[in-house]
Amino acid sequence: MQPAVPIDVDDTSGIWRTDGLPMVYLPRHFLVNNHLAVEAALGRAAYSAILRAATAKSAIEWCEAQVRDKRLDPEATFRHYFQRLSQRGWGQFSVDELDIAGRRGSIGLRNSIFTLEARQQQGQRVCYMFEGFISGAFSFLLGNSGASAIECEEVYCGREAHDHCRFKFAIGVSR
Ligand SMILES: [Zn+2]
């Protein structure tokens, strides 16, 4: 099967783009090895906090660009974000529960790059990078109430005794 995302390569500059956004295509082990090296240097708690803010910011920017370019409504944009992540090989995300009025939801993830690549971390939850992705996208959906107000946690992981990962998210709920 061919990729489901449109990929445009500029024949002069060599830049890859999807939906007008410059992209980088790289080996999964490269990304995860870098991730694990920074985690080892900073400690997981410090690194996780940095990642959460940075990835949430990027998710919000991505969603805002989609609204501008594709004129999707906020919920469609939120769902499109996880569709695109899935189509780009991060893992297979499913928005299983989305209660906008209650400001909470649940997202499943199969074949996460971290569970497939981080083989030395058996028995640990390893996909915390995605907590910021989800916080940012949900913050966007709620009208940018501030990604820091969104709590998101990987409540179980495919590296534990599960066949997939599960993320729960809500506004203002203590972790
Ligand atoms: Zn996981």
What features would you describe in this structure?
The chain is of the alpha+beta class and 175 residues long. α2 (44-70) runs parallel beside α5 (129-141). The chain has helices at 28-42, 44-70, 74-87, 113-117, 129-141; strands at residues 8-9, 16-18, 21-23, 92-99, 104-110, 150-156, 165-171. A 4-stranded antiparallel sheet has the order 4-5-7-6. The structure holds zinc ion. Residues 112, 114-115, 125-127, 154, 157-159, 165 line the site of zinc ion.
Describe the structure in brief:
The protein is an alpha+beta fold.
| Shape descriptor | globular
Backbone structural class: alpha+beta
Instruction: Report the CATH architecture.
Output: 2-Layer Sandwich
Average pLDDT confidence is: 93
Strand content: 15-25%
Q: What small-molecule ligands were found?
A: zinc ion
Estimated helix fraction: 40-55%
- CATH names the topology as Muramoyl-pentapeptide Carboxypeptidase, domain 2
Determine and state the CATH class.
Alpha Beta
Q: How many domains would you count in the coordinates?
A: 1
Give the biggest sheet.
Answer: 4 strands, antiparallel
> How do the helices and strands follow one another from N- to C-terminus?
EEEHHHEEHHEE
**Contiguous uncertain segments of 5+ residues:** none
Strands of the biggest beta sheet: in what spatial order? 4-5-7-6
User: Got a strand count?
Assistant: 7
- Distance between termini? 40 Å
Count, helices: 5
> How is the quaternary structure best described?
single chain
Radius of gyration: 16 Å
